[in-house]
Amino acid sequence: MIESMNLAILVGSLLIAVAVFTSLFSTRFGAPLLLVFLILGLIAGEDGLGIRFDNGRVAYFIGSIALAIILFESGFETKLSSFRTAALPALTLATAGVLITAGIVGLSAWLFFRWTWVQSFLLGTIVASTDAAAVFFLLRVGGISLRDRVRSSLEVESGSNDPMAIFLTIALVGVASAASVSAESEAVLSLVRSFFIQIGLGTIFGLVGGYVIVRIVNRVELEPALYPIVVLAMALALFAATGMLQASGFLAVYVAGLICGNAHLKQILALRRFLQGMSWLAQIAMFLTLGLLATPTAFGDVLVPALLTAFVLIFLARPIAVWLCLAPFGFSRNETAFVAWVGLRGAVSILLAILPMIGGVPHGQAMFNVAFIVVLCSLVLQGWTIGPVARWLRLVVPARYGPVDRIELELPGKGDHEVVAYRVGAESAVGRGRRIPRWARPSLILRHGRSLRYETAGPLEIGDQVYIVTATENVRLLDQLFARPAESADDSALFGDFVLAPNARMADLAAVYGFVLPREAETQTAAGLLKSALDGNIEEGDRVACGPVDLIVRRLNDDDEVAEVGLALERREGPRKLPLFQNRREIMEYLRERRIRKTAARAAALAAAVTTLPVEDEGEGQKGR
Length: 625
Fold this sequence. Notes:
By secondary structure, the protein is of the alpha+beta class. The protein has 23 helices and nine strands. It folds into three domains: 37-392, Up-down Bundle (Na+/H+ antiporter like fold); 406-482, Alpha-Beta Plaits, CATH 3.30.70; 499-568, Uridine Diphospho-n-acetylenolpyruvylglucosamine Reductase, domain 3. This is Cell volume regulation protein A.
């Protein structure tokens, strides 16, 4: 027994270590790292190196704990401002979007597999949700800089739609396992009732649990190394207790993570690093376990219909669901298309596909195999192309500055100041001789192993490590001083040739550059025109064409108001105009124009009919009288 235990520890630890080192391969070749983890599990499995693992209950247990950790860390890393920005569209995608996607995929599964309606829609719910681990990894680690609203919508959706899919899958497994039609109808009614209970109580328990975690951490004095452990333990306890009370534990831990990550917590920097490491470990463990559970030699029986299901999901179900959900919120066609494309399926879908097997649902093994193939197609096709698609749709926001070599240190208490340490790089503004503002003067400088005071150190040198105590809101400004240049085109091409004050009058600009303004724009300022043209959804780098020039949002202040306007004399190529994914405003304009055209056509037809009426000859009329 001891030998088998040691063998299991040896194999597990080696698999995790190899999975970590494959990140070098993923970074070099652009492969989605989670796909590499999944393939590594397949290689180590029964059809590869011969490791036999077929216990679905153990796999679901491991996957559930891993997913709870991932969701807590996802909520912890989500800023409350981002949640407020994207709450309505993201939650619409997480609820109505999941239902629409499940319905379309379920219909296709009924056509391709000829299963019962319940079994078909069960497969639809299994693959309906996007994967938080895959989306968060590709957006945060992949180096893609997107508009805040698009990025926030994707992150909040991926973190909040798993509970919906999990609830629907568990409920439909119960319906599919029912012994009779009457039992099925009772299960459907129970599904409707329990939906509101699970989602409502899950949200409430998450809010209360997050508040309790924050209060306990801030009031109890512990060894610094114990704070991350107790936070994760309380988060998992919340997950389990909420599930025991018949509510959604996954939703509860996500909401609790959102509360904790946006509160003042002791040792929050150490906690953030610990949770990031645990999230990576959870992703590796979940993908490896699910890869080991799969048997690729059994995929042949369902390969063709599974590929057709993946095609329907990627190219029909997800785009239709995203378009219907985002149309009322003013997303542009390109933004809607990108959100539709970043609908990655991952370990959650495979994890949910275990439930029909252990629940005794007919075709349960086939559902697992189909879900596995769909996930592989999604990670390969969508995961490998997110960057190119974002650039093709011209949704990548230009970075104002590049990477920063920064270290964060924590001050005791809950003050609004931070200690940050920067290493002076040769290409940074400071390294090129830029003076540090008075409010940012260092408290300590490390140079060649010696500690120096700022007053006696002289000018900063390349390689110095600089420690600065500053207000939290100033850290972003310091990043710009110590950052390397952004790896993009020159500043003038991205943000304009000239800088204008936000209150510059458009009438004066039109007079200088000789173009005609629409009447409603003559009295507007440059900032006002940008705000009205962009429907208030403003981010740095946004452009609005105005005659022969472009107005550009160069900088926003802390209230997200335009603080600097750029003027570009050379017109930059505008965004691509897709023929699909019109939003509510475009649909209403189209309907209004169509109504105007119909009215004009009817008026023209009436005028033509009047001109063709026979006119009585005046002379003949007098003669008759």
